[in-house]
Structures are given as C-alpha cells and as structure tokens.
Specification:
With about 450 residues, this protein is mainly beta. The chain has two helices and 39 strands.
Length: about 450
C-alpha cells in the first residue's frame, strides 16, 4: 500500500441545502441587482443560521477519492479528538492528524493482517488488536503510531486457542480485550484486562458454554468498574465492579454493538434496524423506533441524548433526544458501514466496505471513498464476520484476468461447496455465502489462482 494519497474533492448539494448557496452571499439579487444591501445580508445570515438550527439533518455531500493500492474493507475507527485518529481493516491500518483530510499508512500496517479493533486514548497513545494467520496480537503506541509495542500475542500460551478481535481502553494503562475460542464446550471466557499497560493480564472470570466456539462480538468499557460485552450476539454480559461479578441478559435476536455513554445507560444496535435502550443497567429494556430495516452494525453515544448508528447499505441514523426520535441521514454510498465514532457533537467518522470513510463536521456529512484499483497481488481475505451465522462475506483480490476456483472444505478434507469455478476479471471481488445444509463447525475456504493457492479458516455457528 502506498503511504501517500492523491485526493480529489467534488461537491454536490442535497435537496435540503438548495437554499444555502444564495444565502452565503455573492451571485445576483432576486430583484435583478448584482449585490445585496448590508441589511439584507445580515438578514440572510440570520436566516441561514436559523435554518441550520432548525434542520439538524442539513447535509453537504462531499466525495473525496483517495487513491491507494488497497481495495479492502475498513472495520474499526477511533479518534482521541477532532484531529487525531486511526482506521483499521483488511491489511489496512491508517492514521490521521488533521481530522481525516489526509491519511498516512501507520507503521504497524507493515506487519499485515486483519486490524479488527482500535481505541485511541489521546493524540499520541492508542491500542489495537489485529490477526495475522493463526495468531492475534494486542499492541499499544505512545508516540502517535511511529512505533508500536506488542504487549500480548496469542501464541505465547497465556490463553490457548484464543483469537482476540476486540479492544477497549480507558487510558494508556487500562485496556480490556476479548475474542473467541474454538472447539470448546465449557471454558474460561476469551476475555482479559490489564491495569499496567499490558505488563500483566487477568481474566474476566466468566465461564461460558458454547459449541463449536465461544465468541464475543462487541465490547464497551465505560469506567474501571462498568463494562459490557456481547456473547455470540445473543447474550449481554455487564459488570459494575470491574468484572468481579457479571449479570447476563438473554436477547431475542442478534445484536452487533454496545454504547455506554453514562453509568446505567446502555444502548444496543442489532439486525433489522433494532435499537434497545436501558436506563437502569439492563434491568429493563425499551425498543426504539429507528424506521429502518437495515442491519445496524455499530452504535456510539456521547451522552444519554446523542447517539449515532450505522449499518448495511450505507444506513446512518441518529438521535438527539435520547432515542425518542431517530432521523435517517443520506450517506450517498451503498457500501456497508461497519463502525462509527464521534469525538464530540460536531465531529464524527464512519468506516465501511471498499475503503469508504464518512466524515461528519458541524452536522455536515462528507463522504470519503477510495478509488477501487487493480490490486498488485492476488489474495484471499479473511471472511467477515467470522464466526458467522447465517451468512458471511468473502472477499478476494485478483491481479489479472484469471481462471479460478473458490471452494469450501470440512475438517476431513471433503469439499462441501463450490462457490466459483471459472474466469474472473481483475480487481477486488466480494460475495455472500450462506450455507444452509452444513452443520456448525470449522471449515476451510480455498482460492486457487494462477498466482497461487490461498486458504482461510471459517467458523459456522448455528
């Protein structure tokens, strides 16, 4: 991936903002004159400010095309303030120091892999979890990403057969991580925390049942006492004493993300546009009307009034009244948006498939989308989500026109499905796989190309 980008900006005004350009000054008077009087100009400025205050959904759609050698999906985003942040994804890890106007490839990206979760603490310090092959790592930086220290790696035997996928942190010393374990029926939860910058780790203390895997799909830490995590998307575990004791809420459908803006205040975002809110630390839940049927993949909240959620097909909804009403905002993209983060009420970011980044400033939405380019090598990316049920997205890159085979094998080496067997054009390709006749277990995805054979492990949960 190149460490520099060529950025081109284009602007288009939405229907809601058609009144804005004339009111900003310049142009012709409605009465035919070439300029306005000072009194009229002041009136227009007042009217413009009034429109902005009354219509929070006012949108300026600005598309920025970033040219790079990557065509992979973004999965995580975190900012410490309105300027400094990171985004991570498939073999992609970028940082910015100007709010996303320009992005640089972070030094950690040289390791390659699947950067699934990141948490910025301040403009110099951050935590990240990534996977490379069969191993997962936890790292932290204290110098804005110029150098990263690996503070935990799965293969060191501290927690065997665990893949860590999520991280949340309170500061440069305290961090919590969790992930999934395969081939386990009853086991300690694949979750732990550190209070000393990763010098030592302690388990959450949860014993969970699962087959063929135990998997955490979301993690949110509010304080050194209050935290919550989603188990297999269907059970919410939350604690108010730093993990010494956990309460469990069973959920009737799949949820994907947690937001805890204040103590006792929990938001959940899930499939089919479902958002749940608890104001008593999970003792009771209220379903909120988001007016969307899209799967909501991520939610963030700054306080008990303001929250934002994103999801499939460019879905973006937000509330400023504690969820009594949710507004849908056009994002001008059909890509799945996988994560959202707000540093304050005026600055937010959303990331998604095909390198999409959406930047929100002062209520205005600007779309940042990388140009899809032909990759420099053929490759098979890790499917997402993984573990999955009932479907997962498979992405692969082809450097040239190729005759390929994409198939799936079980643990005994038997081919159980053929996804593609034929010619394919160069570029990045994605498809959804929803196995209906396969049982829960571990499977292997194989891509055969003229450039080589690539394999990834899949875990199906039913």
């Amino acid at each position: 991936m190149s460490s520099e980008f060529r950025i081109v900006r284009t602007q288009r005004w939405s229907r809601r903002s058609l009144l804005a350009p004339p009111l900003l000054g310049g142009g012709s008077s409605p009465l035919g004159g070439s300029s306005y009087s000072k009194a009229n100009h002041m009136l227009q400025r007042t009217l413009f400010c009034l429109i902005i205050s009354l219509v929070p959904q006012f949108i300026l759609a600005q598309t920025i095309h970033i040219e790079s050698l990557s065509n992979h999906n973004f999965l995580a985003v975190s900012f410490s303030d309105s300027l400094h942040g990171w985004v991570g994804g498939d073999n992609t890890f970028l940082r910015t120091a100007d709010g996303g106007i320009t992005w640089m490839v972070d030094s950690l990206a040289a390791h390659g892999g699947y950067f699934s979760s990141v948490k910025a603490v301040d403009q110099s310090q951050a935590w990240v979890v990534w996977q490379n092959g069969l191993y997962s790592y936890v790292a932290r930086t204290t110098n804005a990403g110029l150098k990263w220290d690996t503070v935990f790696s799965e293969f060191n035997g501290t927690i065997s057969h665990t893949t860590f996928t999520l991280v949340d942190a309170l500061d440069s010393l305290q961090a919590w991580v969790c992930g999934w374990v395969s081939y386990i029926c009853v086991c300690p939860a694949p979750a732990m925390k550190t209070l000393n910058a990763g010098s030592s780790w302690s388990s959450f203390g949860l014993m969970l049942f699962g087959y063929p895997s135990v998997s955490f799909t979301a993690l949110k830490v509010f304080s050194d006492s209050v935290a919550a995590t989603l188990f297999n998307g269907r059970q919410l575990y939350h604690t108010v004493n730093g993990g010494q004791k956990w309460s469990c809420d069973s959920l009737t459908q799949t949820f994907n993300e947690i937001a805890i803006p204040e103590e006792n205040h929990i938001w959940l975002a899930g499939d089919s546009g479902t958002v749940l809110l608890s104001t008593d630390n999970g003792a009771s839940w209220n379903t909120q009307a988001t007016h969307t049927r899209s799967n909501l993949l991520s939610i963030t909240a700054l306080n008990k009034l303001n929250a934002w959620a994103v999801g499939s097909h460019g879905t973006f909804v937000c509330t400023s009244d504690g969820g009594s009403t949710w507004d849908s905002v056009a994002t001008h993209t059909n890509q799945n948006l996988n994560a959202v983060f707000y540093s304050d009420l005026n600055h937010g970011w959303m990331v998604g498939d095909s390198g999409v980044v959406l930047t929100v400033k002062y209520g205005l939405v600007s779309s940042v989308q990388r140009n899809p380019l032909v990759p420099v090598t053929s490759d098979l990316l890790q499917n997402y989500p993984n573990p999955f049920n009932p479907a997962t997205t498979i992405t692969y890159d082809l450097v040239s026109q190729s005759q390929i085979t994409l198939d799936v094998f079980d643990e005994l080496g038997r081919r159980v499905d053929i996804l593609i067997d034929g010619p394919q054009t160069p570029g990045s390709h994605s498809l959804n796989w929803s196995p209906r006749n396969l049982t829960s277990g571990v499977y292997f995805l194989r891509l055969v190309t003229p450039q080589g054979t690539f394999t990834k492990k899949l875990i199906l949960l039913k």
